[in-house]
Amino acid sequence: MPDVAPAKFVAACVQMRSGRDPSANRDAAVAGIREAAARGARYVQTPEMTSLVERSRDSLFEKITPEGEDATLAAIREVARETGAIVQIGSLAVRNGDKVANRAFLIDAEGAITASYDKLHLYDVDLPNGERWRESATYEGGSCAIVAETAVAPIGVAICYDVRFPALFRALAEAGATVLTAPACFTKQTGEAHWHVLHRARAIETGSFMISAAQGGHHEDGRDTYGHSLIVDPWGRVLADAGGAEPSVILAEIDLSLVADARARIPTLQNARPFRVERIGSAA
After folding, report:
1. Is 0.85 topped by the overall pTM?
2. Residue 119 annotated among the catalytic residues of the structure
């Protein structure tokens, strides 16, 4: 890793529609990474659940392995070596005892795993359209946020539902991250309402780039995801948007000088003060 990161680099998101066949998903991810690198990307990100989108707990356990045996992880490490790209796997489902870890990986240009992160916030919600999700029934949540030092920038790693928790992204920025990420398998219903505004807000609040690759479309397990992979600059401007749910590759130039510029204009990280909350009065 160079002593000084470049001031500018090209970043890419690989938007996918992962299904129930890990080998087909693996091939799609590898092809997307190769395409992104061929188009000049130095950093490439894939979505949450790159290797498998499966809501059945039994079927999920039949198809996943511990981290050290994961074929998708091995293949993406190899394509990182082949292309010289830094790759962030949005996440893989890996065995973790009798539960599953929803785990992200940072892979350097030599194919080494430099960091991993287990999704902190589990998606336990009931949506107005009748969808019911209980990730905690299958997944074990993480307990540690991370900033991954890479050859292009310090990257704050998060996954999907994490994007709704601004304190996490503030903490990542305060710890030195200039690029924040939340690769996702975002439901269509909530994505239509909140995806863009959440990403722009996290970028603006912290004066950071937000980069999130997404799953998109109707999946074999019956779910519908929103797509619209995004790259947002520190002033909240959308630099690239996949524009819908179809599998695709989007790219944008990341100019890290914009981080210092945004943070100087609106120094929220510096101006924040500790406070207490008092609840006053009583219910009638």
Report:
1. yes
2. yes
